[in-house]
Design a protein that fits this description.
By secondary structure, this protein is α/β, with parallel strands linked by helices. It contains 14 helices and seven strands.
Length: 386
C-alpha cells in the first residue's frame, strides 16, 4: 500500500506580513498564488524568488527575432527574456541557453517546460557563457543575449550569501557546487590583495580602510563567515566618518564590497573577456547581440572590446543614443529606475562578414548602451545589418 505523503505546514510568522525569505510562501510559489504575486508586482516590488527582466521591449525591438532563427541566451537566469524570445520564434527555430547555477536553472527549465517550451525548441546547457563556442558546436547564431551579473532570486535567498540585508553564509558563488566560497577567499588574500580587489572590481573609495579591518579580524582569529559579519566589518572600518553621512556611505561600501568579492569568487571579468573574444566567431552574417551589464567594470570591458574591434574593422557601425525604460516599467521594477540606453555610430575598415551588434549596458548608474556594428562581405562588399 502506497504510503500517504506527510502534510507539511507552512512557515508561521509574526504580524500580518512575512518578513524573512522563507516566510514568503506565496511569493515563492508564483504558479499557485498568481493573483497575490501580481498584486506585489503592481505595487512596485519584486516578489521574493522572482526576477523581473529589464528592457524586454527594447531588446526585442533591436534583436528583431524571426521564426526559424537560432539564438543564444546566457545566462538563463529566471528565464523572463528567454520566454519572450521563444514567443517570437513561434515554434520554429531554436533557442540555446546556458547557466552555471544548478539551483535556479533547474527551476527555470521546469517553468519553461510547463509553458510548452521543450527540447524541440529549447536546449539548456549547464556551462559558463565564456564557453559559448561549445554550446552548439558548428552552429552560428542569428541573435545572442547576454544578461550579466546576478538575478533577484539569487540575491533574495540569504543562503546564497549575495546580500548583506539578511544574515547567511558568505558564499557568493553562482555555482555553489564548484570553487571556493567568499569566506574562504577572504582567508587566502592578503591585505594588499583585498584592497586591490575592492578598487579593480568595484571602484571602492575606501579600499585600504576596509582591507585593514578585514585583515585585523583574521589576525585576531575572528574569521568572517557570514554576510552580516562582513557588513559589520565594513561599518567598523568606516567608523571614522561623520555620523550624519556614515549610514549611506556604509551602505554603498557594503554593496561595492560584496560586488567586488562576488566578481573575484566567480572570475566574472575573465569570463566576460572570454565571451567578448569568442563572440564574433559564433554569429551568423547579420547576427545581432544584446549585452546587459550591471556595473562600471563590466561596462568598461564591453566598451573597450567593441571599440577595439571597430578600429580593427570587425564592426562597421557603432551607435550611441539614450533610451530610458518607461515610467510603468520603472514603477513595476524599481531596479530599472536608473536604466538608460545609449547608442553611437562609427565606421570601420574592411573585413569578411557582417555583424550587427546591439550592446545594452546596465552600468553602476544602470545606463544601457547600444552599440551597432557591421562587418564587410567578401570582396569588399559592404553588408549592412538589419
Amino acid at each position: 500500500m502506497e504510503q500517504e505523503k506527510e502534510h507539511k505546514r507552512r512557515v508561521r510568522y509574526k504580524g500580518t506580513h512575512p518578513r524573512s525569505y522563507r516566510e514568503k510562501y506565496k511569493e515563492l510559489n508564483p504558479e499557485k498564488y498568481q493573483q497575490d504575486v501580481e498584486k506585489i508586482i503592481q505595487s512596485g516590488k519584486t516578489p521574493a524568488g522572482m526576477h523581473i527582466p529589464i528592457c524586454v521591449n527594447e531588446i526585442l525591438e533591436f534583436l528583431n527575432i524571426q521564426p526559424g532563427q537560432i539564438g543564444l541566451h546566457a545566462p538563463l537566469g529566471y528565464g523572463g527574456h528567454s520566454r519572450k524570445m521563444l514567443e517570437k520564434l513561434q515554434g520554429q527555430g531554436h533557442l540555446y541557453a546556458t547557466d552555471v547555477d544548478p539551483i535556479e536553472s533547474e527551476k527555470t527549465q521546469s517553468r519553461l517546460e510547463e509553458a510548452g517550451y521543450g527540447p524541440d525548441i529549447l536546449t539548456i546547457r549547464r556551462m559558463n557563457f565564456a564557453q559559448l563556442d561549445e554550446v552548439a558546436p558548428g552552429v552560428q547564431f542569428d541573435f545572442v543575449l547576454a544578461d550579466l551579473g546576478v538575478s533577484s532570486m539569487q540575491i533574495d535567498n540569504p543562503e546564497r550569501g549575495f546580500t548583506f540585508k539578511q544574515d547567511g553564509p558568505l558564499d557568493l558563488r553562482l555555482d555553489p557546487t564548484s570553487g571556493e566560497p567568499a569566506s574562504q577567499r577572504l582567508r587566502e588574500l592578503n591585505r594588499e590583495e583585498i584592497a586591490a580587489m575592492l578598487v579593480e572590481n568595484a571602484d571602492e573609495p575606501y579600499p585600504q580602510e576596509i582591507a585593514k579591518a578585514i585583515f585585523q579580524k583574521r589576525r585576531k582569529r575572528q574569521p568572517i563567515e557570514t554576510t552580516r559579519q562582513l557588513a559589520d566589518t565594513v561599518e567598523e572600518a568606516l567608523s571614522f566618518l561623520p555620523q550624519r553621512e556614515r549610514k549611506e556611505v556604509v551602505k554603498k561600501s557594503c554593496q561595492r564590497t560584496f560586488q567586488a568579492l562576488r566578481i573575484d569568487v566567480n572570475s566574472e571579468f575573465e569570463v566576460l573577456y572570454s565571451f567578448l573574444e569568442k563572440l564574433p566567431s559564433v554569429l551568423k552574417p547579420g547576427g545581432k547581440v544584446a549585452v546587459l551589464t550591471f556595473h562600471s567594470g563590466e561596462d568598461r570591458l564591453v566598451k573597450k572590446s567593441f571599440q577595439a574591434l571597430a578600429r580593427q574593422g570587425i564592426y562597421r557601425e557603432v551607435a550611441k543614443e539614450v533610451v530610458r525604460p518607461s515610467a510603468q516599467e520603472c514603477f513595476q521594477n524599481p531596479r530599472a529606475k536608473s536604466t538608460k540606453m545609449k547608442s553611437r555610430v562609427c565606421k570601420s575598415r574592411t573585413l569578411l562578414q557582417t555583424r550587427l551588434v546591439c550592446i545594452l549596458h546596465k552600468v553602476k548608474s544602470s545606463s544601457l548602451s547600444l552599440l551597432k556594428s557591421g562587418r564587410i562581405g567578401r570582396g569588399g562588399t559592404r553588408l549592412s545589418g538589419s
